[in-house]
Amino acid sequence: MKLPVYLYGHPVLRAVSEPIGPEYPELKELVAQMFDSMYLSEGVGLAAPQIGRNIRLVVIDADPVSDSFPECAGRKMTLINPEIEIFDEPAISRSEGCLSLPGISENVPRVEHITLKWLDEDFQPHCEEIKGFLARIVQHECDHLEGKLYIDHISGIRRQLIRGKLNNIATGRTRVDYPAKYAPAAKRR
Fold first, then answer.
1. In this predicted model, what pLDDT tens digit does every residue of 66-87 receive, in sequence order?
2. Secondary structure of residue 82 in the 3-state scheme
3. Are 153 and 91 in contact (CB under 8 A)?
4. Quick one: which of 64, 141, 156, 158 has the fewest CB in 10 Å?
């Protein structure tokens, strides 16, 4: 089952997500559905708030970008209750997009060296230093768990310049070629 991606303007994207435990109902089925939805949408990551659930769950398959970023080769991950420690390094600006913000991409400053602690879908603990573009993907997806979007990291001037595009998404005037859920007040045209 393909789950709809919740688009900019929907309140679920701005709420802080709750941790989950092994008792979470039908977790493996949900993870499989999230991967299916991410692939259908041609994304490399999907956080649970993007499918309308404020739980601390992320799926990532970074392999599609491995030609440009070798550290992403074969990196398919399910992150439950992830925690990030960011190394004190200079931020590097790179272009980011988001399934919840279709048709927009912006240069976002992020560090590209982190330590990630998480549980996999069998609730086995992991801890790993992650570098490069994969670290950027992880930070982007984990931001969703805190109710943040990548546009929160860009300058106020850049946000003003894309205000019309954001308004079009929030009011349902942006079309996507994957299942989507618009903000409650959006009137699709």
1. 999 999 999 999 999 999 999 8
2. strand
3. no
4. 156
Domains of the chain plus CATH, in order, are 5-181 (3.90.45.10)
Average of per-residue pLDDT across 166-176: 94
Q: What is the mean pLDDT of residues 134-153?
A: 98
| Beta strand pairing call for 92-97 and 105-110 | antiparallel
Q: Note whether 54 and 143 are within 8 A (CB).
A: no
Residues paired with residue 49 on neighbouring β-strands, in sequence order = none
Contacts of 88 (CB under 8 A, 6+ apart): none
DSSP character string of 13-28: GGSPPBP--TTSTTHH
Residue 189: is its pLDDT beyond 60? no
Is there a contact between 84 and 116 (Cβ–Cβ < 8 Å)?
yes
- pLDDT of 188 reads 54
pLDDT class of 149 with cuts at 50, 70, 90: very high
Active site residue 141: yes
Quote the tokens at residue 31. Answer: 């993870």
Q: What is the pLDDT of residue 2?
A: 87
Helix locations, the chain, DSSP H: 27-40, 132-145, 156-161, 163-170
- Residue 147, SS3 per DSSP: coil
Backbone CA torsion sign across 39, 42, 43, 44: positive
* Catalytic, out of 96, 106, 112, 141: 141
